[in-house]
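so the lab meeting is tmrw and i was supposed to have these ready like two days ago... anyway. pasting both below. for each one the top line is the aa sequence and the line under it is the structure tokens. i havent really looked at them closely yet so no promises
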Amino acid sequence: MIMDEPQIKGLSYKRRQNLFLFLVVVFLLVLPALIFYTTGYRLSFENEETSIVSTGGIYVTTDNLEVDVFLDDEYVEKPRLFRSAYYIQNIAEGQHRIVVQRPDLDTWVKELPVDPHIVIEAAAFNMPVVPHVRPITEFITVAGAPVYVGVASGTDLFRGVSTTIPVYATSSRRTTIYEENEEYVYVTSLFSSTSSSTRSVFERLFGEGERFRFATTSPLGLTISTSTEDFAEQGDMRVIERDGELYARWLGTLENIPFYFCVSDGASSSIAVRYGQHVADQIEVLKVSTTTPIFYDSNRVCRPEIKLNRLRQDVYFYDFFPNSRDLVIMQLEDGLYVTEIDDRAWQNVQRLYTGDNFRVVVENNEIYIQEGEYYYELITEIEPS
């Protein structure tokens, strides 16, 4: 018996026309609500009264994947938008505190103003509370483990730090059973070509006196003095020394200037409340400067440079944090620190390594430490255990 194939009839012209009109009506009804929502307006049901409020958002990037984010002491439930960024929306107008933390990492805190219909940006960073190091020794085992030879029993090799790999220590000084470590030769060569002066950066500058300088011009029109002195530079960002202080200066175009160089324009008192008195004071100084003037971009005022917080200590070394133009590392009197350039509200400063008698080299986006006869690579990104 042959079965007939099922017959599927299409909608009639009249029904298709009615369906189309229905969908158009639904779209027209929903469109105002979509526009209302996407432009930052929300319905508020507080105090038993329904009202319309305007909201903004905060976009926060993080350098660690597993962290907790709080907004005004309230935990933000799964706000991750991308792999390394969070987008927090529906935030009422006003000052808000963002906290990014994890028990084994230093806490990052920033208080920022949120304006209606605007998403403000911030970049969090969290360094390990206990420094993590990878030992680099002259000899290694066949399996590649670092070997410390001639070490007395009970010697504490890693006081105050945590090692990221297993190590082998022996009181014997016999080395023929081990392999020579080529990385050790490379790292020691980095320090042999680096000045061993224990004077601060500023003492070395002032002791050598003024050197020959010549002027160049940046895309922003700034006059930049250069000399035979070294400076740190990452892309269009440069860290310079002036009058005993460190400054991060933007050398690129105004269109590409990092967000934290610019704040909403307004009266000095308003800027002080929203971003901090130090930001308002710097803007007032730069308004009359002939060498580093401020720039206006629509409703924003942009500074060409930002002073770095050196915790009122001498600076013995500074460079950019690996793979970042927004963070700077500084060796101070009691340790190695990382500071953000973003000074809105305040600059977060976190300690990477504790000590007053060690040397630092940054090479190929790695941080190396020499303390006495020991060499380490400093590990700044760790996964939760």
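ok protien two:
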Amino acid sequence: MTVYADVLVSLNILITYIFLVCTRVICKMATNRFLVAVGSFIGGFSALIIFFDIKYPALSILIKLLTAAVIVGVSFLPRSIRGFIKLYSGFLTVSVIFGGVMYFLEITINPEKIMYYNGTVYFDMSLAYLVGSVLVIYGLFLLVQYLLDKKVSNENLCELKIFFRNTAVSLPSVIDTGNNLTDGLTGRPVAVAELSEVAPLFDFKELDFLKKGNYESIPEALKKYIRVVPCGAVTGEGILLGFIPEKVEVKTKTRVYINDYCVIAVLNKQLSEGEYRALLNEKILQNSREEKRIESNVF
């Protein structure tokens, strides 16, 4: 089979891009599109290894593992070893599944048109056909992802009402089973809300403090309410500023929960494209002091 370098590189750029998107979904990790594009090009050009005669299988495997590490590092810029390991494992899992599918196709469907060597795939077909096929597969993947995300969001969607110093705000929220944040000092469960959504609860000076996080200049009126919440994510370790509300009211499709033993951490960026503005810890519902059943659907 004649292998054309332009087809080889183009195909593997698209495949690497799909690998990275799948990895992002598996690891629930947001990333920069430009960095993903750079990682995809690295993956595409690394496919040129197919032209080298590597006599030792172990060396070939090592090169592929190192290349995968570079692709993950460039595409996601993980800030901790734990985050890198999670992303790297996700990327390798997707790669192994893809390799299995390619091997199956190679031995069953038109094997003279497919080559899978040293972890690199090549199809002896026109570039236009290859690009079209990969884009169709990618489109189907995005459709499945959208349907799954929509289903999960609808099932866990709720309304959060926060009461603080004789003022209240309501915001669309989602019950996040992955949110296990608790206040390290009191053990209170933590909900994470966008700062812009809870802004009416604070004056200008207090908002400025919450944005900048200068612990040496905590406004006097906030001192007894402010909490510092350690958090860990794929992107690394960090801390969030939070406050103790008077109480919160969580309204789901069937029930209303009232909790006066929690912390609201604030995040100075968007959590979603508008579907929700806060992430709730399930313990806020489980440890509610009052629970009411409602008959009608609130959504």
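from a quick look at the 2nd one: Residues 5-125 form one domain. DSSP finds eight helices and twelve strands in the chain. will dig more after coffe
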